[in-house]
Amino acid sequence: MEDLKVVIGSDHGGFHYKEAIIDYLKARNIEFEDVGTHTRESCDYPEIAKKVCEKVNSGEANRGILVCGTGIGMSMAANKVRGVRAALCGDTYSARVCRAHNNANVLCLGERVIGEHLALDIVDIWLKTGFEGGRHKRRVDMLE
Ligand code: RB5
């Protein structure tokens, strides 16, 4: 596994999974920063997405994870930030291939859509999978 520094954030709709993912990261000694939200109070997902994306773009982190109720709002917000390639994943195949082919640097998850164990499997695969480069690099470069 590459040297990982993860930045993670959620709104209230993704708070529980954010905490579960943090437990996963701690158990594996993976460096991370939690940008909130820190309570179950209602909050605005675009602000959290912006914080995570800024840290990925600045190099403070090399991977970002965003959780909201559906993962949709977070992925919409994240993909508006130049340099960010956010992938909303609800299955492990997409988690693997969005890394291998799309070099996704932000993972989005929907707490109200998928089960917690599937979400953690997605995180595990997404963090462990490297970018294949080659023909995929040309296509990813075209995104920019
Ligand atoms: C919050 O109720 C919900 O709208 C949010 O978590 C997310 O699903 C938005 O896309």
Write the layout of secondary structure elements.
Elements: E1 5-10, H1 15-27, E2 31-34, H2 45-58, E3 63-68, H3 72-78, E4 86-88, H4 92-100, E5 106-110, H5 116-128, H6 135-143
Parallel strand pairs: 1-2, 1-3, 3-5, 4-5
Helix pairs in contact: 1-5, 2-3, 4-5
The protein binds D-ribose (RB5).
Residues 11, 13, 45, 68-70, 72-73 line the site of D-ribose.
Give a quick set of tags describing it.
single chain, 144 residues, alpha/beta, five-stranded parallel β-sheet, 45% helix, 17% strand, globular, binds D-ribose
Structure notes:
The protein is of the alpha/beta class and 144 residues long. The protein has 6 helices and 5 strands, in the order βαβαβαβαβαα. A 5-stranded parallel beta sheet has the order 2-1-3-5-4, sandwiched between helices. The protein is globular and about 45 Å long. The mean pLDDT is 97. The structure holds D-ribose. D-ribose (RB5) is lined by residues 11, 13, 45, 68-70, 72-73.
Distance from first to last alpha carbon: 26 Å
Please give the count of helices. Answer: 6
**Largest beta sheet: what is the strand line-up?**
2-1-3-5-4
Structural class: alpha/beta
Beta strands, count: 5
Bound molecules: D-ribose
Inertia-based shape: globular
Strand content: 15-25%
* CA gyration radius, whole angstroms: 14 Å
Précis, in short:
This protein is of the alpha/beta class. The protein has 6 helices and 5 strands, in the order E-H-E-H-E-H-E-H-E-H-H.
